[in-house]
Structures are given as structure tokens and as C-alpha cells.
Design goal:
The chain is mostly helical. Helix content is about 75%, strand content about 5%. The protein starts with a helix and ends in an 11-residue tail after the last helix.
């Protein structure tokens, strides 16, 4: 019971961090049809900006300022870069954001170096939140979960209960009508792109000190985020949440399980040794295969449900 509950909580906290990161990408795609390959680079920027700000004025101001700065950077990228190539179609957009991701990594390395920076968890959040049997659950993981849930609530309320949210949704399907009503549709899209990047920046602020803040952090989570978005369904925020939690829990449990086919068969009396055909494959543990499980899930989803769990848009 202890193992099950603690692993579940760890999986949910990791899944909610994935959702914080994938939600911005999902919003940008659902509103603009742009698949932003540089999205995790904005996650990296959020972590580095938070590190720089926290060393000067503390973590709590960084929690607010860093995502806003990342959002401004995203808005500038959309206004002066992405908007120029948007009219040429999806391939130029992909190439632009793909190249941008490398430019951002190089800039980070020029400013902060290639080694990991010492971005620490604030002292007031560094400790156990509660103890379950003999295992403690960290305060910071609980804080990560709280921020992710508050972010989900804020996105929902903004899109369904505010005027700007209604304008954003209307601009997606009826841009000419929205423009005729006096709204600046390109500005709306710039705000959406900047807002999506700000959400990635917020994930960087939260995840940068929980894991490692270094130039390779964008590449580390990049592929997983696209798995989340495709499995959940392109453009579906609820799908991104479900897929994030599913993948977070799946990987967390898998990493903690040290069982192999051979170990299971041996409990039933089977005698298998190095001479057994396929022994190297049969001896692989679930923990060793954990990194490939999300991609296996992606392949299965693409085969049996190409639109994803809750897909609403194809491109």
C-alpha cells in the first residue's frame, strides 16, 4: 500500500508538470494551428530566467516575473518571426521553430555556460509535506501539483468566462467576423502564442529546480511533450491533461518495478539460463524498458486512434 500510494503521488506530480508544459503547446496549436517545435526551449528559458531572478531577489518574485518575461519573448517571436512565415504554410513554420530551438540553446550556453546551474528549491518548500508509513512526500512536489491545478483552473475560466477567451475562440473559427467587430486578430494570435510560451516558462520555473537546469533540459522533455500532445489529441486541453497523467503514472510505476519475464516465469518453476533463446530480451526488467513505454503508447494510439484520446483538430 505504501509503495502504491507514494508512487501514484509521484506519478501524478510528474504528470501535472508534463501538463503544465504541454498545455501551452496545445493552446497554441488549437488556436493557431502552429506546432511549435521550440516550445520546450521556452521551458528552458523559464528555468534560466527564474534562476537569474531568484539569485537577485528570491524565488517568489521569479515565480511571477520569469513566465511574464518568457511570454514577452514568445510574443516578439510571433510578431517578428513566425507571422512572416505563417502565410507560407506549416512546413516553413516547423522549420522556423525547429531552427529557433537551436538558436535559443546556443544563446543559453553563451550566457550561462554548458554546465548545470545551481537553481535550488526555496528553503520554505524544502522538506516533507507528510509521511506515509515510512516514506515522506516532499512539500515541493505538492507545490508543483497545486500550481498545475491552479493553472488548469485559470485557463478554463479565461477561455469560458472572460471576454478575451470568447474572442480567442471566435478568432479561431471565424477570424473575418471577429475582425469585422473591431478586434485585431493578428494581435489576438500574438497574445495566444505569448501566453502559451508563458505557460511553458511557468513549467520551467517549477520544474527547473525540481530536476536539473542545464542546456539539455529542453531536449530531455521535448519528445515526451509531443507524445503527450499526440496521445491526448492535437488541440485538446482535456486530452493533454489525461495523457500527461497517464504517461506520468505509467513511467513512475514502471521505473519502480524490477520485474522481468524471466523473474516471473521462475516463480512458476521455469529454469531459464543464458543459453535460453532470447534470454537477453526476456531478462529485461520493466524499469529498463520504462523510457520506451510512452513511445510505445504513441505508436499504439496512432495505429488504433490516430486523432488521439480526445482529438478535436487534425491540422
Amino acid at each position: 500500500m505504501e509503495f502504491t500510494l507514494i508512487t501514484l503521488l509521484n506519478g501524478l506530480s510528474y504528470g501535472l508538470l508534463l501538463f503544465m508544459l504541454s498545455s501551452g503547446l496545445t493552446l497554441i496549436f488549437s488556436m493557431m494551428g502552429v506546432l511549435n517545435f521550440a516550445h520546450t526551449s521556452f521551458y528552458m528559458l523559464g528555468a534560466y530566467f527564474a534562476y537569474a531572478i531568484s539569485t537577485k531577489i528570491g524565488f517568489w518574485p521569479a515565480l511571477v516575473i520569469a513566465p511574464l518575461v518568457v511570454g514577452v519573448v514568445g510574443a516578439v517571436v510571433e510578431r517578428y518571426g513566425l507571422r512572416s512565415v505563417h502565410k507560407y504554410g506549416h512546413i516553413p513554420e516547423l522549420l522556423f521553430t525547429f531552427g529557433l530551438s537551436y538558436v535559443m540553446v546556443e544563446l543559453v550556453q553563451l550566457i550561462w555556460g554548458r554546465a548545470a546551474v545551481r537553481y535550488l528549491i526555496p528553503p520554505e518548500l524544502d522538506g516533507p509535506l507528510f509521511t506515509l508509513y515510512t516514506t515522506t512526500f516532499p512539500i515541493y512536489r505538492g507545490f508543483m501539483m497545486l500550481i498545475a491545478l491552479l493553472m488548469l483552473l485559470a485557463i478554463y475560466l479565461m477561455l469560458t468566462r472572460t471576454r478575451i477567451g470568447l474572442v480567442i475562440q471566435a478568432a479561431l473559427t471565424h477570424p473575418e467576423t471577429v475582425e469585422a467587430l473591431g478586434h485585431n486578430v493578428p494581435r489576438v494570435f500574438m497574445l495566444v502564442f505569448g501566453g502559451g510560451c508563458a505557460l511553458a516558462g511557468l513549467a520551467g520555473v517549477i520544474g527547473g529546480n525540481a530536476f536539473v537546469t542545464e542546456p539539455g533540459m529542453a531536449a530531455t522533455v521535448g519528445s515526451i511533450i509531443f507524445v503527450v500532445v499526440v496521445v491526448g489529441g492535437m488541440g485538446s486541453l482535456v486530452g493533454a491533461l489525461v495523457a500527461s497523467l497517464l504517461i506520468g503514472v505509467l513511467q513512475t510505476y514502471a521505473v519502480a518495478l524490477d520485474y522481468s519475464i524471466i523473474s516471473v516465469l521462475s516463480k512458476f518453476g521455469a529454469q531459464l539460463g543464458p543459453g535460453t533463446p532470447g534470454y537477453s530480451v526476456l531478462s529485461l526488467t520493466i524499469a529498463q524498458t520504462a523510457p520506451i513505454l510512452p513511445y510505445l503508447l504513441l505508436v499504439l494510439i496512432l495505429i488504433f486512434r490516430p486523432k488521439g484520446l480526445m482529438g478535436t483538430r487534425e491540422g
